[in-house]
Specification:
Layout: H1 5-8, H2 14-27, H3 46-57
Length: about 70
């Protein structure tokens, strides 16, 4: 199978590279604050959950237009 030159130039997702580097520093005893990928350590606030549920019930689901939501 042959691949396009453009496909062959694709690299890895850099966020995972940074996560690995940060974890390496943690294992060496460095104090690292992870602001990268992963789950937050707190639950989503109730008013945000309710706003999401309301929007879904009101039919706001699926992708937005490529140029975004104009009123925003």
């Amino acid at each position: 199978m042959e691949y396009s030159e453009n496909l062959l130039r694709l690299g890895t997702e850099s966020a995972f590279e940074f996560l690995a580097r940060a974890q390496s520093l943690v294992t060496k005893g460095k104090d690292i604050i992870n602001l990268g990928i992963g789950q937050p350590d707190f639950k989503t606030a109730d008013h945000i959950v309710e706003a999401g549920v309301k929007d879904l019930r009101d039919g706001h689901h699926g992708y937005t237009p490529a140029n975004g939501i104009l009123p925003l």
